[in-house]
Amino acid sequence: MTPQISKLGKPVVEKEIRFAVVMYGGVSLAIYINGVAQELYKMVRATARGRNDDGSFGDYFIEKPESTETVYRKLGELLRGRFVVDILSGTSAGGINAVFLAKALANNQPMAQLEKMWVEQGDIELLINDKNSVADLDGLPLSRTPTSLLNSQRMYYRLLEAFDGMDRSAPKSRNDASPFVDELDLYVTATDIRGLWLPVPLADTQAHEYRYRTVFRFYHSTMDTKEDWSQDFLQGNNPFLAFAARATSSFPLAFEPIKVEDVGIVLNTGGFIRNYAYTELRKGWERFHKDYNRQDDGIDLHSFGDGGYLDNKPFSYITETLQRRRADIPVDRRLFYIEPAPEHQRQNTVSKEDRPDAVENVAAALVNLPRYETIRDDLLQLKARNDLIERTNNILRQIERTRGGIGKMKVWGARGLDWSTRYLDEIVSEYGAGYAAYHQLRVADTLDEFAVAVARNIGMEEEGRSFNMLRQIFEEWRRKKYSSNSKDKRRTENDLLFRLDLAWRVRRLHFLGHLIDDILLGLGNFRFDAADADLSLEEQEQKEYAEEIVKKSGVTWDIPDEAAKNEYFETLLSIKRQINKAYMELRVRGRKLRARNLAARDVNNIDDDVLKAHVQAIQPLRQIKDQLEEILGDEKRLAGVCEEIEALSLSLSSRPKQDETATGYLCHTMTIVSHMCKEAMSGKSLPGVSKPVLKNIQDCFHFYYDHFEYFDMLTFPITYATPIGESDVVDVYRISPEDATGLFSAKKSNRPKLAGTKLGNFGAFFKKEWRENDILWGRLDGAERIITTLLPDSPKRTELLLKAWLAILKENLDPDNLKRLRDRLGSSWEEFENVEEPSAQQMAKLQQELQTYFERHYQLNLEFSPQTTLNAMGRSISVLGSLLDGLGQKYQAAQTPAFWLTRLGKIFMGVMQVAIPGSLPGLFFQHWIKVAYVFELFLIILGGLLGFNNTVMRFGIFSLLFTLSIDLAVRLVGSYLAGSTRVMGIVRGVAKFIVVLVLLAVIALIYLGLVYLGIAELPGLLSTSGT
User: Fold this and answer.
1) How far apart are CA 18 and CA 688, in angstroms?
2) pLDDT tens profile 610-642
3) What element of type H or E holds 208?
4) Chain-centre distance of CA 2, in angstroms?
5) CA atoms of 81 and 1006, how far apart (whole Å)
6) According to the model, what pLDDT value does residue 5 have?
7) Alpha carbons within 13 A on the beta-carbon side of 518
8) Cα–Cα distances in angstroms (integers) from residue 478 to residues 183, 420, 465, 617, in the given order
9) pLDDT of residue 990
10) Which residues of 745-780 are buried (b: 16+ CB within 10 A; e: fewer)?
């Protein structure tokens, strides 16, 4: 597929390929996830475009792509698309990476700080919660009594330091728009350990329950006017971003749950105290924890643990966010979920007679099932959304194929004020019987939206018993004031819809945008140098449907060549941008109208005079918040409230006299948006477009704009209260070491790809080379899955894969392995990089050579470092002892284990110090152990001379046994430190252990023989006495 070139000489962006990304937990496998995140970031950078003054895409933002960016740019040109990551959801270790990737995308900042943190700071010896963990931190205090095995404050300190490093490397101003994403949502899960007390929405009473599952949402948007931009990833929010990252990764026992007060402790140390005014910043963070902003139950009272406790696979937020997404151009939506250690399950094979026994039942209830999470329900929800989109699209296509021409559509033309004066019974005969149901659905939806807006304005929750009563009052208002019957003296329901139905206007803009997308997709498949037979079935259908849309509007578009096609294409893109601006204006103004506690705001602090008038108009309704039940039971009071609601509705929609500005907020909003739509189709912003092209497009879209109600009647009942939003189906893919097998398959090779999977996924914390290995594979696997999912059948796929792999290997493979790889590949590497069009045979050979290298020759020592392991064991035992000692103050049963663990840790550390070969304590120990042996043998001999059965001899023998035990322990540890990574070292250690055991057994037998002969006696602890 040849990239389409615009008049500017740059490949045309025909669509956005958008990615929603879910990142699982996995302890040290966060390092693998980081490698994948790096590739996602490079993919977005590669195709990012600047914006022209009219909002159209300009040149590439990155002039000279580096590393794998060159591959992703070629990929984007092949697909005629721009890559965007706009939704991120993460938990535990994945949550940390999601936060950093979101900040990098929102602020155009590099992710190198996070990789550096993982590689340099993700070391078990730096993390263990003793004095060594704070030795290199400026002023961070160490807790006297540890509450976790690893130092939680150190983790927070390093996270915040990495965020600050991103801002230092590329400072971000509030007025700077991101070149990578216009709108970005980030969801980070956590667990509120003690829960948040919240009301349960019951119909007839009040109830409460605890909510433990928590999600912190961060939002970036530069789609509105600058004063309405949302920039949650600026430097001032770094402490709370680090708080969310630390909270979601508070793995039980390893890290303690975090409280907001812990943030203040770190901010008062080192350089942070100069950069962050903790008390002032706290107020700005309240939007991140809205549910906790109550005086009686504020966030300061809550501790947050690992998000994986209750939500280790956070998919649900993706579907919710898709409802709010819009785009200037057609969208191809993908969802990647990153699972570094997939579960391996087998189907249960049980007979019909088998039943779970008591043990299996209890284990399932307490251990197995509570921690088991399925993603099937989440993916089925996405599938249901996909099915609904496809069903709706098919309906629209069938409408276009089967409906009559323009003449039969005249009755559906827009009527404005004339339409608002007619009753339903007067028009249903013209529109058909099905119109009545559609009409009533619109009325009900408008009432719902109006009631929700008022509830939020006066500080009510829009759910539960209170809201149900408010909704009843609004229904009573409609019944008293409006009618569908022309014999009634009340206002028409059409008048209510004409004045208040903002959602209908939103749907119309969405409909027009969707039509433009369909035409753009069809235009992309117009061929002037090849026959339609070259198109796939899907491309042919897209082209035919675009032609049908234009034809049924009564217009004929003449597109004789590529130049005409590009003119139509760029004109449609420009109109789509203007329509999206109108949509965003509706969205922003609608959001202001639905603001929570709007009625309580001081009108003197509101700059918008029209919004100020609305705040004043809603004041009479503030008093009904706590009197709903009494109002419903008092007909007179109910009638008075209905009058107040009517006055509010008229205030919202009050229309201006000629040449006056609208004073009603809704009327003002609709006037602004209507003007923006007319501007979009007027051609004023398109001076370079030829008049015939402009007129053809105007005539086509004026038809659909004016006749929207016909299409809405057929589709709104289907899509009502459903999560569609962005109108493209979502394709779901997994990124894991098991899905990316182009270079290495752990299953076939029977050895692990990732070192981090060792020791319950804590493995990568034990060796720097293991962390570097896992980042390498994260990048390799990420690149492979991105390319193979986007180009499943393209002949270019292998070429791009090889280029991406080689670029990553140059940067991340350690020097020794890289040299061995180059030696084994010989000239194949250089030949591939230097040839313009590599042959299939050349690429197949190179890939085979790469696979052979990683399967047979790639060297990674997967044995634990003896010194690191033993040192970590000793320090961990000591910390656990101190932890239990602290718990012993609260739980008496923990006192005895704490006593022994603390002392065992000290003994173990003492053994470690003297066992290190060549160390000063070791040399000192070796000298005095010899002295001890000589002295003990002297005591045994002396005891023998004095008579075998005496205290001197017994003391000498027991001292010898004790010394032998200590010597044995030190020698075993020393042997392990010196060479346990080699088989012969293990053999030698085992042999020494067996020899010592034999010597101990011989000594024991000799002593028992002396006891049997009556020459010696058993020690008092072992002897028994009778009476």
Assistant:
1) 31
2) 888 888 989 989 888 888 889 999 999 999 999
3) strand 206-221
4) 34
5) 85
6) 45
7) 22
8) 38, 16, 20, 19
9) 43
10) beeeeeeebbbbbbbebbbbbbbeebbbbbbbbbbb
Examine the pLDDT at 348 and tell me if it is beyond 50.
Answer: yes
Condensed to tens digits (0 to 9), the pLDDT of residues 888-946 reads: 666 555 455 545 555 555 565 566 555 556 555 666 667 667 777 777 777 777 777 66
Please state the φ and ψ torsions of residue 208, each to the nearest 5 degrees: -135, 160
Q: Note every long-range contact of 814-821, with CB atoms under 8 Å and residues 24 or more positions apart, other chains counting.
A: 814/769, 814/772, 816/859, 817/858, 817/859, 820/853, 820/857, 820/859, 821/850, 821/853, 821/857
Q: What is the pLDDT of residues 589-618, one digit of tens each?
A: 888 888 888 888 888 888 888 888 888 989
CA distances from 319 to 312, 381, 722, 730, 947 (A): 17, 8, 11, 10, 88
pLDDT of residue 981: 45
Angle between helices 152-169 and 92-107 (to 10 degrees): 20
CB atoms within 10 A of CB 57: 23
Give the gyration radius of the chain's Cα atoms.
36
Q: Which amino acid appears at position 278 of this protein?
A: Y
Q: How many C-beta neighbours within 10 Å does residue 858 have?
A: 17
Q: Which pLDDT belongs to residue 492?
A: 93
Cα–Cα distance measured from residue 46 to residue 786, given in angstroms and rounded to the nearest whole number:
13
User: How is residue 80 written in tokens?
Assistant: 């005629």
Closest by CA to 730, choosing from 164, 22, 6, 14, is 22
Assign 966 a pLDDT band (cuts: 50, 70, 90): confident
d(CA 13, CA 28): 39
Helix, strand, coil % over all residues of the chain, rounded to 5: 60, 10, 30
Give the 3-state secondary structure of residue 766.
helix
Rounded Cα gap, residues 334 and 20, in angstroms:
6
Distance between CA atoms of 327 and 726, rounded to whole angstroms? Answer: 8
């209908």: which residue's tokens? 504
CA distance 883 to 905: 12
The mean predicted confidence, pLDDT, of the chain is: 81
Return the higher-pLDDT residue of 5 and 896: 896
What the block records as the tokens of 544 is 């035919």
Dihedral of the CA atoms 877, 882, 883, 887 (nearest 10)? 130
Cβ atoms within 10 Å, residue 659: 5
Q: How far apart are CA 187 and CA 216, in angstroms?
A: 6
What's the count of helices (H) and strands (E) in the chain, helices before strands? Answer: 39, 12
What is the reported pLDDT for 680? 86
For residue 665, the SS3 value is helix
pLDDT the model gives residue 780? 97
Q: Which of 319-333, 512-526, 861-875, 997-1011 has the lowest mean pLDDT?
A: 997-1011
What pLDDT sits at residue 68?
96
Sign of CA pseudo-dihedral 622, 626, 629, 634: negative
pLDDT computed for residue 351 by the predictor: 67
Vertex 222: Cα angle to 219 and 225 (nearest 5): 125
**Phi, psi for 17 (deg, rounded to 5):** -100, 105
Residues 473-499 have a mean pLDDT of 92
Residue 333: enclosing H or E segment and its boundaries? strand 331-338
CB 493 within 8 A of CB 514: no
Structure tokens at 510: 């969405």
Backbone phi and psi for residue 248, each to the nearest 5 degrees, phi listed first: -65, -20
Going by C-beta distance under 8 Å and a sequence separation of 6 or more, which residues neighbour residue 1003?
Answer: 957, 960, 961, 964
The residue that leads in pLDDT, 985 or 130, is 130
What percent of the chain has a predicted confidence (pLDDT) above 70? 81
Q: What are phi and psi of 485, to 5 degrees?
A: -105, 130
Phi, psi angles (nearest 5°) of residue 221? -150, 130
Rounded distance, CA 372 to CA 310, Å? Answer: 9
> Which residue type does 296 have?
D
